[in-house]
Amino acid sequence: MEPDRTSSPPPEGAPESDPSAAAAPDAPHAIERLPLFASIQRMSVAERMQFARRADKEGRGLLIRDSNKQVSLAALNNPKMTIQEIEQFAKSRQLDTDILREIGSNVEWLKNYAVVHALVANPRTPLPIALRLLSRLKTLDMKLVGTDRNLPSAIRIAATKFVKSRMEGG
Question: What digits encode the pLDDT tens for the residues 131-144?
Answer without folding.
Answer: 999 999 999 999 99
